[in-house]
Amino acid sequence: KLFFTDYGNAAKVERCDMDGMNRTWIVDSKIEQPTALALDLINKYVYWVDIYLDSVEVVDYQGRKRQTIIKGRQIRHLCGLVVFENYLYTINSNDLSVLRINRYNGTDVQSLARLDNAKEIRVYQKRTQTAVRSHACEVDPYGMLGGCSHICLLSSNYKARTCRCRTGFILGSDGRSCK
């Protein structure tokens, strides 16, 4: 799945398959300007920062079990968000500090460091990397990803795929080749 935020005409948190199909709103009320987004891949939760409401909230992948983690001036100007173990990590764009927030109750907010210039944060740790299994976009015997001549996108699960073409090309009737 692909998760993303939008605060154009109607603010929302959405998800879709990797090929763009099955687009679903998972949060569309009591939300103004969702920016940073982070996933708990193990427990299937979506966290986001709303910079207008000065809040960090969470829902499950279906948009249920919504909770406010923390709200108020203390977390104004947040950008970037990542989940690791019991904490959320984010950047305060006002003073460029890295903040750590307890993701279960919003307590224990700590400034860990100051950076010269940062707008995003990531955690790279072996336990956060999901195991790769065989999937529909693997290279076929002819060297094409998923048998697609241009672009292979995973679909509703790792066994399904959709072929797409680069700009200026159209997908052939076989659903794989681009002309």
- Tally the helices: 0
- Arrangement of strands in the largest sheet: 4-5-6-7
What is the helical fraction, as a range of percent?
under 10%
Task: Count every beta strand, where a strand is a DSSP E run of 2 or more residues.
Answer: 13
Overall radius of gyration: 19 Å
The CATH level-2 architecture of the largest domain is identified as 6 Propeller
Return the CATH class of the largest domain.
Mainly Beta
Q: What's the helix-strand series?
A: EEEEEEEEEEEEE
Pfam families: FXa_inhibition (PF14670), Ldl_recept_b (PF00058)
LDL-receptor class B repeats: 1-43, 44-87
GO molecular function: Wnt receptor activity; Wnt-protein binding
Organism: Bucorvus abyssinicus (Northern ground-hornbill)
